[in-house]
Specification:
- The chain has 357 residues and is an alpha+beta fold.
- The chain folds into 2 domains: 9-95; 118-356, Bira Bifunctional Protein, Domain 2 (BirA Bifunctional Protein, domain 2), CATH 3.30.930.10.
- Helix content is 40%, strand content 18%.
- Strands 1-4-5-9-8-7-6 form a 7-stranded mixed beta sheet, sandwiched between helices.
- Helix 2 (26-36) runs antiparallel to helix 4 (55-95) and helix 5 crosses helix 10.
- The longest helix has 41 residues, at 55-95.
- The chain is elongated, with a radius of gyration of 34 Å.
- 29% of the residues are buried.
- Bound molecules: adenosine-5'-[phenylalaninyl-phosphate] (FA5).
Length: 357
């Protein structure tokens, strides 16, 4: 009888099954799989050689080969499951922790106790400085409507200034009407609205909180960061009052050695507007990577309340005037503690965090 490529199929299948059973690890299985069932396998070579058979024998041979392949593949999957389970059990054993180790009073290594983050501590310190200057502290929501985050602040739809605050939108209601606030300035609107409703003007308040922007994290930016907003609405408020508050704040928070300056800027909700900068504390003004070689770091924006904003909340701009500012809390922490890269604040490296416990 003429020989067939499948003459040794039973022995060769048995050999493959033995190879599968002997696989010792998932890595080995992954390495050897092409030789067992893949293109380079004996089963695939046999498949190609079926062409030499007479047409009447080919069908039967094909079915036998398929059966052998199914058997080997099932064994391989079974072995994969076993090895995966064994690897998982080994890992659980390695990760196993005796809860007795963390019970207070039975601690086997020096116990570490958590502490507030540097940003939380900085926020508290900033609040203390402003409270000492006569401000009250308020908070506002992190999820805002388009009206509070933009429109009431004189930033209508399609205004180019919206590009300054690359926005995360929340899928709620009409598209692009609910946002994660891009700054703490909407809290100004809430505060003025409620003061009008309660007939409780004047306002001297700071409003700290988290903001979100689609900024690529770098040495001075995070996608989730913090600002402290300041708002004063009173009689006869002038730009010199704003400059005085910023100067007093800088001296109180950074000490006498740090220079600050105001530079003309644009914000749709203040007029005139300015940017507030301090000497870069990393390079002491020499120029470095953190300050993009300028020697200065921008801490925030500020300006006199635009009459359009007072109008939006129903405050009479002939009787009342005021100013607002918004500083980056993370930036303040960064400059106060000479942190070259802001991303360190959120990377959870215990060696970094321990310095501020
Ligand atoms: C504003 O957000 C204005 N709302 C500030 C303002 C308030 C102006 C009131 C006038 C009156 P600006 O986009 O420049 O402005 O941000 C203010 C500060 O927030 C920055 O100087 C910086 O300190 C901080 N900041 C902004 N974006 C980020 C970010 N991605 N990561 C960390 N800090 C940031």
């Amino acid at each position: 009888m003429a020989s067939s490529p499948l003459d040794n199929l039973a022995e060769q299948t048995a050999q493959l099954l033995a190879t599968v059973a002997a696989l010792g690890s998932i890595d080995q299985l992954r390495d050897d799989e092409p030789m067992i069932t893949g293109k380079r396998s004996f089963l695939s070579t046999l498949q190609k050689s079926l062409g030499v058979l007479a047409p009447e024998d080919r069908k039967d041979a094909g079915a036998r080969l398929q059966e052998a392949r199914r058997t080997v593949e099932a064994a391989l999957e079974g072995r994969r499951d076993e090895l995966t389970r064994a690897a998982r059990l080994r890992q659980l054993e390695v990760d196993r922790m005796d809860l007795g180790d963390v019970v207070v009073g039975a601690v086997r290594w020096p116990a570490t106790v958590g502490h507030p983050s540097l940003v939380a501590v900085t926020q508290r310190e900033l609040e203390d400085v402003f409270v000492a200057m006569g401000f009250t502290v308020s908070e506002g929501p992190e999820v805002e409507s388009d009206w509070y985050n933009f429109e009431a602040l004189n930033i209508p739809p399609a205004h180019p200034a919206r590009g300054m605050w690359d926005t995360f939108y929340v899928e709620l209601g009409e598209p692009e009407t609910v946002v994660l606030r891009t700054h703490t300035s909407p809290t100004q609107i809430h505060l003025m609205e409620s003061a009008v409703a309660r007939d409780s003007l004047p306002i001297h308040a700071v409003m700290p909180g988290r903001c979100y922007r689609r900024d690529t994290p770098d040495a001075r930016h995070l996608a989730a960061f913090h600002q402290v907003e300041g708002l004063v609405v009173d009689h006869h408020i002038a730009f010199s009052d704003l400059a005085g508050v910023i100067e007093t704040f800088t001296r109180a928070y950074f000490g006498p050695d740090i220079e600050s300056r105001l530079r003309p800027a644009f914000f749709p909700f203040t007029e005139p507007s300015a940017e507030f900068e301090v000497t870069c504390t990393i390079c002491r003004g020499e120029g470095c990577r953190t300050c993009s070689q300028t020697g200065w770091i921008e801490l925030g924006g500020c300006g006199m309340l635009d009459p359009a904003v007072l109008d939006a909340v129903g405050i009479d701009g002939d009787e009342w005037s005021g100013f607002a500012f918004g500083f980056g809390i993370d930036r303040c922490a960064q400059m106060r503690h000479q942190i070259a890269d802001m991303r360190a604040l959120v990377e959870n490296d215990a060696r970094f965090l321990r310095q501020f416990s």
